[in-house]
Amino acid sequence: MKSLVLMALVFVCGWAVMSLEILGGRILTPYFGSDIYVWGSVIGVFLLSLSIGYFVGGKLSRHSPRPIYLSVVILVAAVLVAVLTRLHEKVNNAVFDWLVAETLGGERWGCLVAATILFLVPTTLLGMVSPYAVRLATTDVCSVGERAGVLYAVSTIGSVLGCLMTSFYLILWFHMDTILLLTSGLLVAAALIFPGFYRMSSLPEKGQSE
What we know:
Blueprint: H1 2-32, H2 36-60, H3 67-100, H4 107-127, H5 129-137, H6 144-173, H7 176-202
């Protein structure tokens, strides 16, 4: 039961990461064009963010891992995703005026700077979830590899579905800011529900010795 709770959590966070990445390209395109530099910047920033998140999440999981800490990380990420609805136009305008309008050929660096400012921190926080979840799921050293494989696989499946749903359907149905708010709401719900379900799943069953 505990494993199912953790799988649901990493699935949601994996969905959110890839949905945010798809939206990232759409957010930058009106200012920096649809050149390969835009998608290269978005993909590069997200890969860097996830790498940092995996490292930091793994380090933090070594010391008194608790579900409430993971919920706080996800809540902060959710708030930052929601803040993007108010921030992305201001950041894009500021970076465009600073690097693009005044520098010939500055589009490539402008979109990289804008992508870093907008997406580095929330994606790093979401990247912390999977390694921390692996620690919460692990009860003995022998099962670490198996638990990690399952949780990262589920997270990746969430990312695949988040990518397809966002690019094939959600972008057609909703405004980008609405999708960001829906993603933020999904993360908030997961963060608030997770500790209670994790606690219940950790209780010994009736007739089972504690």
